[in-house]
Amino acid sequence: MAQTQHDVLPRATHDEAARQDFIQSFKVYLANNVSPGNREVYDQRVKPQFEKEHGRGPKDRHEVRKAMGADPYYQFWSSLQRTSQEMMWDSVSASVDRQLDDLVGKAKSGGQGKTLGSLRLDPSVEVPHYHAKVDIHCQPGGYHTELREDDVAAGAIYDRAVYIYTMGRAGPLNSDMGDSAANFMRRTFPEFKPRAILDMGCTVGHSTLPWVDAYPEAEVHGIDVGAPVLRYAHARAESLGEKVHYSQQNAEKTDFEDESFDLIVSQILIHETSSKAIKRIMDECHRLLRPGGMMVHLETPPYAAMNDEFDEFIMDWDTYNNNEPFWGPSHEIDYRELAGDAGFDRDKVRLELAPSALAEAAGRTGVFQCGDFAGAGEWFLFIAEK
Predict the structure, then answer these.
(1) Residue 279 and residue 277: Cα distance in Å, rounded?
(2) Strands 245-248 and 261-267
């Protein structure tokens, strides 16, 4: 299935498309044919050697990482995995740079009429240190860097690259996470009818638009700290005929009034923050929710849900190799305690695995592993009610 074309999606030339298709196929090959060899190496070579030297097996992912780090097969795979990520950004960035003037023009013309939603930018918003100090996911400049007036490059690069990164398994609109979470909520809470919805850390709106479709009577807002991704998100939504109110804000402290929303959602926001920031975000969720309102945060499963220390280790690759320093710590969060500290009832917190909305997506490996973000066919949901 091809990525859905909309007005601001960057168009690739023949050679650009060929390069991007190669990188996507390369990622598929790594996930399906090379990555599984790490388990064989661990079981047959690394773990027995560790047991011989220590009289026991590795007790956690950290010990596995130290042991596997010296193995040539793992070094080979890890190098290719990181290289595929850098190749992906390079290939898409070159395409976006070539047509950036046109993309900026399209975004401006699409946003000026504001026929459906709205866009509110605030230059005073400070990019938090956990974004400013690293290029998240190795995307050059991250989501917030602006190199020209009315820049949308970060958004355009992200939109196209995510399709390559997920190997097309997030769907033609890269919306599988939002679709999956929204489907779960409608199925599990059929009487719940939110009037106002907030998507925290929305980037370009891949997972925002499914909530517009799931609850057409609701007013939907999306916030992010990055101006270029928000400009792109607004133009993208307008192009697709979806009404969303985007604003540049930090989820740790927004300018919305108390009890403004019935539903607050996020999709893979938590692991992009920090241990202090996520507590402030939970406090903000509690402040913004109306009584009876709910928050739903989608992530990959905590390490405690993994089969063993090796699976934790493979999932943890991004912490050390993909510029995601909070990935590891975020997968050890006690969600009941986190919610309780913010004022939610610990006993009513729900931790669920929601099936992918694209259950039949081709080529899934059926496991959670780095570089195969959508491969398992299900997502972890952290749900709490005020």
Answers:
(1) 5
(2) unpaired
